[in-house]
Amino acid sequence: MNTKHHAVALITGAYSGIGLVTAKALQKAGYRVFGTSRKAAASVDGITMLSCDVTDEASVNNTVAEVLKQAGRIDLLVNNAGVGLLGGAEESSTAQARALFDVNLFGITRVTNAVLPTMRNQGKGRIVNISSALGFIPAPYNALYAATKHAVEGYSESLDHELRSFGIRVVLVEPGYTRTAFESSLTKPDQPLAVYDSVRTGMEALMRKGVNAGDAPEVVADTVLKAATAEVPKRRYTAGKQATQVRFLRRFLPEALVDRSLRQFNQLPIV
Predict the structure, then answer these.
(1) Residue 233 contacts residue 126 (beta carbons within 8 Å)
(2) Which end of the chain is more exposed for a tag (fewer CB within 10 A), N or C?
(3) Model-level pTM?
(4) Helix, strand, coil shares of the chain as percentages rounded to 5?
């Protein structure tokens, strides 16, 4: 994609963390960047910030309309907005599970559906969906979050096949642990059970340790830029050393060995 003529990028969840760093990287690369956050935020470093709630279709449509009013086109959509949930799967009500999917999956579909008519009319476009290494491996005590990311992967791959004839490509970026405040804003289970208290506490500590030792958000931003600008994009891009290693292990190691390694990593009994 040629960014010399100020191609327009829209990135959701750009208030902080991976989203903000990615927005800055895209702006530096020559894109005219619009970022979104749930609450109004001041524009910064040449990035135009807009208020958008990805769980609200009217809010999404208004945001896309505002981008088109100001810029006239959308060449790149980065679906980054998302929330986490750590706890035993049994500890979340179906209402809490629906709320998680409403952001992490249906938020992506709302924004994508709002942008697609413009991209089709242009005859080109690129959609980058931020998934996770937990989109292709099991994730004990992150089961519902992993389910949303597995769903994003299936949605994205299928949608890519539907849109190629319109000149639009859909690709995935899969980060591992990243040094952001993501773990500090995790949703807590809405029906916690005492039987899970000890191991849940251990998983929270393990996640904090992983995040502290994780990749810088710039690693993910660089991967997004690569996925956005590749003339012939790959289906997925792992972001960072850890995610790349996990992808390799999942693909080539025997299933029993992967299962054992997963339990060891998560400090669970080998049974």
Answers:
(1) yes
(2) C
(3) 0.92
(4) 55, 15, 30
| 31, 141, 145, 155: the active-site residue | 145
Burial readout 75-94 (b: 16 or more C-beta within 10 A, e: otherwise): bbbbbbbbbbbbbbbebbee
Q: Would you call 237 a catalytic residue per the annotation? A: no
How would you write the pLDDT of the chain (271 residues) with one tens digit per residue? 444 458 999 999 999 999 999 999 999 999 999 999 998 777 888 899 999 999 999 999 999 999 999 999 999 999 999 999 999 999 999 999 999 999 999 999 999 999 999 999 999 999 999 999 999 988 999 999 999 999 999 999 999 999 999 999 999 999 988 888 765 568 899 999 999 999 999 988 988 888 887 789 999 999 999 999 999 999 999 998 888 888 888 888 888 888 888 888 888 888 7
Superfamily of domain 8-241: NAD(P)-binding Rossmann-like Domain (3.40.50.720)
Angle between helices 106-122 and 94-104 (to 10 degrees): 20
- CA 113-228-126 angle, to 5 degrees, is 25
Q: What is the domain partition of the chain in residue ranges?
A: 8-241
Instruction: Tell me the one-letter amino acid at 3.
Output: T
DSSP string covering 54-107, please?
Answer: TT-HHHHHHHHHHHHHHHS---EEEE-----B-S-GGGS-HHHHHHHHHHHTHH
Tokens standing for 230? 């590749």
CA 128/CA 182 separation, integer angstroms: 20
Q: How far is CA 127 from the centre of its chain?
A: 12
Q: How far apart are alpha carbons 240 and 236 in whole angstroms?
A: 13
